[in-house]
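Lecture notes, continued. The same structure-token format from the folding unit now serves as the input rather than the output. Read the line below as a description of shape only.
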């Protein structure tokens, strides 16, 4: 304790930053004895874990749900501030995207957030998107990339934040990474280390990311002095020991580095490998003498293996569940406003709340008739493609595009019809897509205006797109 006190004094003397004993707390591990006495010797009060640091609870164990209240509060406050702003569906999606980005960048890269907390935050976001009403599209569906049928939100429950932490660890160069390596890897190698119960939750999570990490990184060699010959995965994404099927005595090879088989900037694999093929593979690995030392490069999906820099998007793509490509991707092109894209997206998925659906869900509504024609019952099929009022719009749109299309089709067949023409004339297909999304949006807006505001617009407005 005296040594610690002396260090703080010395630090204060050198930096001019004095320790404020009134505002400081000392934290002990549960195994430490005489905690009160030790705290007294240091002259500061004893604190209890978990403690908040920059709003995030610091703990050596798993963070509990009650430690993460502030995360739920944060999400709640963010969306509440916007409740009254009358945002469109697209605006609400964008806001949720920013809330999620804020949380994942900060919280999820610092601690293991409990599942119950994640569920609460997701529920807050989903309720906000659907204005507290029925969730027409499930959260998991919304969280898929657009080309796979979602709206491109990122789920909170993703391994990507943890893989990023593992990447920061192997990349090194920070006090945190050095401290972790010193604490847990003094006598072993990161890639060969067994998960021990005494490790912290964070370090265990980092170690569990190794298989994923291994597929996305590659080793850039300089002279091999900082690369473990047997254990580091420097051969593609595998280690030498892995490739040789564990034929070697680990003890004998401990501590050997790749510098053993690099001489004067040239590979000399003969002495340590068993097969000629493997030796040949090693010779093909580039040695880059211009670097400072051997380094890990990020070569995950979408990076093209170019810069070696880490991209979170690439990391997320690596760990997420992939779904079949959906036909909706054609809605999400450039040149169409986001609110229009999202409206067309909901129509395509059959999720707009037309009166027939409201009735089916047992809601009380005064009238089931279509507000545009007052003839038939309102359904998505009727409103957008059968109603005499909207048929005009499609006829006009087709005339503008100089192509014939049956106007009583559904949006799916119109989209594939446009898609079939894409190869022939991309410019035409883009115009057609803009017209389709804009028409759908205007029809839906007109319907809502008539129902909720009692207003009517001349449908001629649609033609001027
Ligand atoms: Zn109608």
């Amino acid at each position: 304790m005296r040594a610690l006190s002396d260090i703080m004094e010395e630090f204060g003397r050198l930096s001019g930053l004095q320790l404020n004993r009134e505002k400081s707390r000392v934290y002990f591990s549960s195994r430490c004895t005489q905690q009160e006495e030790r705290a007294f010797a240091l002259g500061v009060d004893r604190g209890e874990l978990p403690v908040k640091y920059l709003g995030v609870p610091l703990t050596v164990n798993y963070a509990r749900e009650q430690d993460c209240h502030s995360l739920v509060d944060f999400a709640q406050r963010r969306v509440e501030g916007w409740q009254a702003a009358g945002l469109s569906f697209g605006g609400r999606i964008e806001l949720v995207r920013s809330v999620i980005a804020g949380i994942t960048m900060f919280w999820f890269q610092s601690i293991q957030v409990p599942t119950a907390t994640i569920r609460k935050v997701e529920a807050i976001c989903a309720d906000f998107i659907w204005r507290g009403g029925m969730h027409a599209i499930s959260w998991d569906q919304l969280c898929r990339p657009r080309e796979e049928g979602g709206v491109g939100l990122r789920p909170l429950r993703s391994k990507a934040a943890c893989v990023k932490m593992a990447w920061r660890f192997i990349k090194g160069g920070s006090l945190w990474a050095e401290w972790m390596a010193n604490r847990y890897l003094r006598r072993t190698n990161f890639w060969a280390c067994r998960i021990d119960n005494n490790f912290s939750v964070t370090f265990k999570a980092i170690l569990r990311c190794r298989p994923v990490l291994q597929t996305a990184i590659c080793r850039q060699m300089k002279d091999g002095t900082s690369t473990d010959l047997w254990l580091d995965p420097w051969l593609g994404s595998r280690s030498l020991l892995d490739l040789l099927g564990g034929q070697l005595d680990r003890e004998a090879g401990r501590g050997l580095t790749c510098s053993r088989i690099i001489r004067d900037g040239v590979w000399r694999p003969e002495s340590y490998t068993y097969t000629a093929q493997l030796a040949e593979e090693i010779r093909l690995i580039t040695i880059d003498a211009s670097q400072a030392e051997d380094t890990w490069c990020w070569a995950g999906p979408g990076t093209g293996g170019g810069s070696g820099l880490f991209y979170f998007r690439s990391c997320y793509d690596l760990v997420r569940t992939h779904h079949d490509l959906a036909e909706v991707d054609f809605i999400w092109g450039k040149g169409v406003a986001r609110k229009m894209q999202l409206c067309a997206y909901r129509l395509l998925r059959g999720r707009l709340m037309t009166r027939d659906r409201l009735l089916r869900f047992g809601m009380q509504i005064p009238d089931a008739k279509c507000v545009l024609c007052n003839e038939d019952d309102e359904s998505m099929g009727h409103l957008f493609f059968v109603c005499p009022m909207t048929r005009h719009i499609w006829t006009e749109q087709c005339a503008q595009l100089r192509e014939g299309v049956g106007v009583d089709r559904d949006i799916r067949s119109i989209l594939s019809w446009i898609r079939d023409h894409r190869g022939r004339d991309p410019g035409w297909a883009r115009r057609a897509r803009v017209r389709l999304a804009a028409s759908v949006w205007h029809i839906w807006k007109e319907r809502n205006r008539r129902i909720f505001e009692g207003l009517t617009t001349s449908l001629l407005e649609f033609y001027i797109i």
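Point for the exam: The longest strand covers residues 217-220.
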